[in-house]
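Much of our argument rests on the idea that a fold can be written as discrete symbols. Part of our work consisted of pairing the sequence of a single chain with a tokenised description of its backbone. No coordinates are needed to read the tokens, only the vocabulary itself. The record that follows shows the chain in one-letter code together with its fold in token form.
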Amino acid sequence: MKLSELELRIFKRIWELGGKATIQEVLDGWTEDPRPQYTTILKTLQILEEKKLVGHEKDGRAYRYIPLVSKKEAMQTNLVGIVKNFFGGDKLAFAQTFISDNKFSAAELEELKKILIEKEREADNANH
């Protein structure tokens, strides 16, 4: 499931709106420039529906669109694509770049340490 930037932004808006949204609701809270036209959102949602990533239900005269993939699934799939396409599949190079290029608070660094310790335990358990 490869999502374009616009498709990802539409998914983000729908998830922000509780997992269901009309085209107008998607547009009403759009914060990025340029703001797409109604017909652009409609056509993109139709494409996502053809890809079986979005469904819809009738709500009065409008359709309410519903993602058929979870936010976590979409993030994981797109992140795998970034690691593959930009880092040749090298997860460590991705992690090093991400960590080096961002500022973290002490609390965030502590949380990262906990995540790494847990991953290390999982790897140890898998090897035994």
User: Anything to note?
Assistant: Residues 92-128 form one domain. The mean pLDDT is 92. The CA atoms of residues 46 and 125 lie 45 Å apart.
